[in-house]
Amino acid sequence: MSTERVPIEICNGVNGLEKVVLREVRGSSAEVYLYGGQVTSWKNEHGEELLFISSKAICKPPKAIRGGIPICFPQFGSHGSLEQHGFARNRFWTIEAEPPPFPTNSSSKAFVDLILKPSEEDMKIWPHSFEFRLRITLGPGGDLMLTSRIRNTSTEGKPFTFTFAYHTYFSVSDISEVRVEGLETLDYLDNLQNKERFTEQGDAITFEAEVDKVYLSTPTKIAILDHEKKRTFVIRKDGLPDAVVWNPWDKKAKAMADFGDDEYKHMLCVEAAAVEKPITLKPGEEWRGRQELSAVPSSYCSGQLDPQRVLQSS
Fold first, then answer.
1. Least crowded by CB within 10 Å, which of 34, 168, 202, 267?
2. What are the GO cellular component annotations (predicted)?
3. What is the mean pLDDT of each run of 10 residues along the chain (314 residues)?
């Protein structure tokens, strides 16, 4: 390949599965597998991987890929009658050459449009006609944007209801050194306690045991501060009122076949989601949900990271 960076390249990944590689001029990159419509890599301009993928991930259908950004649709978790997290993450998506236009403020050439429509088999387990369009964009500064557009294409006048999440696995240096800002004082549903509702008490969320919580009515911006790497991830989201925070910790990690025993120390899921209040679409209606991820150097301030600078900057 010539030294000039091609903004988008289609090639084969693990086990011959097709993937799309996005590259930005300054050196950042992202990889998207058509299997699951799943982002499996997001690297900054120094080539550092910002997402977590398990070393034991099974990249073989029908198993979902453990790590990156799985798409949970039409069901998040066990909130419904379908398999855990629905079926979008283990279906083959197709590249859409000419998607219907939608306004985008990015000038980036590094993007791909994917589409998922239900198969006959899907219609048996979830009898609803839909088109799910996913645009994945790598911005000029290395930001990663995912925009989902889900349309009810029923010709029989049938509405449908779904829950949704971008199940993002962030790569962190050490989970015990990480804190999450922007969710303090909010209510959450605790999946470890029968989805019971509690109110977050701490100043910032830190981690010393298994956590699996759905935070409700969350702000459009959440920050993950990684002290050791002096890096802060900023998640900006639209149309996704909830935020799921998950780390399996040691016992659950050991119980998962596609997850290394100690890998829980190096990952954290913070997921832009719509879980508590499912979304209903009438025929012809479209829903849109977007998340934008950026990684910025954290500034030290009196021995502490200064999250206010991150949360206040645009």
1. 202
2. cytoplasm
3. 72 96 95 98 97 96 96 93 95 94 76 97 97 96 97 97 98 97 97 97 93 98 95 97 98 97 98 98 98 87 47 54
pLDDT at 202: 79
- 167 in catalytic set: yes
Burial of 26 from C-beta contacts in 10 A (0-12 / 13-18 / 19+): exposed
What does the alpha-carbon distance between residue 199 and residue 201 come to, in Å, rounded to a whole number?
6
Cβ atoms of residues 89 and 164 within 8 Å? no
Residues 260/56, Cβ–Cβ less than 8 Å: yes
- Residue 90: phi, psi to the nearest 5? -130, 40
With CA atoms as reference, report the closest residue to 239 among 149, 114, 300, 312. 149
d(CA 243, CA 196) in angstroms, rounded, equals 16
| Cα distance between residue 304 and residue 288, in whole Å | 37
Residues tagged in the binding site annotation:
66, 84, 89
- Which residue in the list 24, 31, 263, 271 is annotated as catalytic? 271
Q: Tell me the pTM.
A: 0.93
Catalytic site residue from 24, 167, 181, 276: 167
Rg (CA), the chain: 19
Distance CA 162, CA 279 (A): 5
Binding site for substrate: what residues are annotated? 66, 84, 89
